[in-house]
Fold this sequence. Notes:
The chain is of the alpha+beta class. Helices cover 19% and strands 24% of the residues. It is globular and about 65 Å long.
Amino acid sequence: MKKRFTALALCGALLCCIPALAAAPAEEDGKDVPPLPASYLYYGEVKSLIHDEDGTLTSLHMDSQQYGEYVMHVSGETFWIDGGNRTPSDPSTLKEGEELHVFRSPMTALSLPPQSPALAIVRNMPEKAGGAHYHKVEALEKTEDELRITTDQGSLYLFITEETTLSAYTGDAPENLDGLRVGDYVMAWYGAVARSYPGQARVQHVMTLNRPSQPLTRSAFAVLLYTAKGSPAVDFDVSYSDVEPDADYMEALRWAASEKLISGYGDGRVGPGDVLSREQMAAIFWRWAGSPMLMDYPGLTQYSDAGDIAPFAQPALAWAHQKGLLPAGETLSPKETVTQAEAESMLLALESQEA
């Protein structure tokens, strides 16, 4: 397992049927699949560290009495947190045998052991109440005395008060959370949760996760899909004015063109460095799945910005929503750029559902 892409490519060979670990509930009689949560918590011990040939840490092979073995893929998108000191943690100091709390993606490849991208990894978790939790901001409501964050698909309220301390994963600690927006992610330290619905927790500390993410380009997406298919040799004549014949992603673009997944713009260019929006990525994955059509599907109406979806992407996003691949919340942001980690998570989910 030399590169993280290799781990993804192996999924096709290793996939087996483990329904209990499926990334999303199975479809029944064409009914909608509920949106996936932002993350799942896994607690376990590091059995081994997996590096590529350059020595970069790519994966953690873990074991847990409760959850069993898992391979957690790490990347530049993974947040490393020192739970006891409420600071970022240095992954270079990680050792085998260390116990971790991993907030993993809900997208899981049903290999043996299962594989999933690690979104946030918490080390040095305090034994007493007040541990770190990874949350997506789904709604915000501010009063004179406190800020209420809605998270966990509407099932939890986090209350931020004057006593809540603040820090940032990168840069200086914010003076307040006025810049926090729906769709952002935070680490929140809190203890007991009131047994109401939604649950309620008083937050001791909030770390904003404001590190910029690397947007996904057309060439990087082609490489991701091409590698997942085993990098097949393709006899397909194609050339682009903005790609050198010996570019390291040329064969991936050639394969993507032969599969009618990614094609040129019509003026001889293919835009290898152009970033992909969420609706563009969904459209390519939809073609990858065979372009299934859903008639009169109403699922996208839950999003307040559904009217922003381009006509070409409507069938693809309807299909992705029915598969449970789209984020929960009130907005979809179809024009927003996506990251490599988001694309890898969706790929893992699709491969799992194909098993």
